Amino acid sequence: MYEPIRTKSVHTPADHADDFPHRSREEELDIQLAGHLAALLAVTDELDLGAAGDRIAEQVTRLRGAAPARHTGRTDAPALALHRRAHALAGRALVVAASRADTAVAILAAERMDAHAATVATATAASSHLVGAP
Fold first, then answer.
1. How many other CB atoms are found less than 10 A from the CB of residue 68?
2. 78 with 32: CB under 8 angstroms?
3. Are the beta carbons of 45 and 97 closer than 8 angstroms?
4. H/E element holding 90?
5. In tens digits, what is the pLDDT along the chain, a chain of 134 residues?
């Protein structure tokens, strides 16, 4: 009644599916986490937070197997904007670290989030007092 399909389906795996390397989910998460931490490290170095930067660099080295490049130049970006950026990056790192079950990085990211949030809150409170001053 029906004629059989004579061509391969587009859903059929390729004949040479093993020709290119595949990464596991853990490897992909390691790469993603190292990227978020490297971005956080760049902002941390820009803020000149040496000890925090060293701790982040240790984790990037552990994940990548090589030491990360450290940020040496300074931009004219306002410190408050950099703290907000660092807070967001630490949040992204925390999400990936939790997904990966990497306790050391999760703790580090949470600490950095708290530190940057406190700095932003303090700066925001100080500026709101200046606006209302007579």
1. 20
2. no
3. no
4. helix 79-100
5. 677 766 666 666 666 656 667 888 899 999 999 999 999 999 999 999 999 999 999 999 999 999 998 877 788 899 999 999 999 999 999 999 999 999 999 999 999 999 999 999 998 888 775 554 44
Q: How many Cβ atoms are within 10 Å of 28's Cβ, its own excluded?
A: 13
Comparing C-alpha atoms, which of 85, 125, 91 is closest to residue 111?
Answer: 91
pLDDT at 76: 87
> How many other CB atoms are there within 10 angstroms of residue 92's CB atom?
17
Contacts of 57 (CB under 8 A, 6+ apart): 41, 67, 68, 70
How far is Cα 1 from Cα 38, in angstroms, rounded to an integer? Answer: 62
Is 97:120 a contact under the CB 8 Å cutoff?
Answer: no
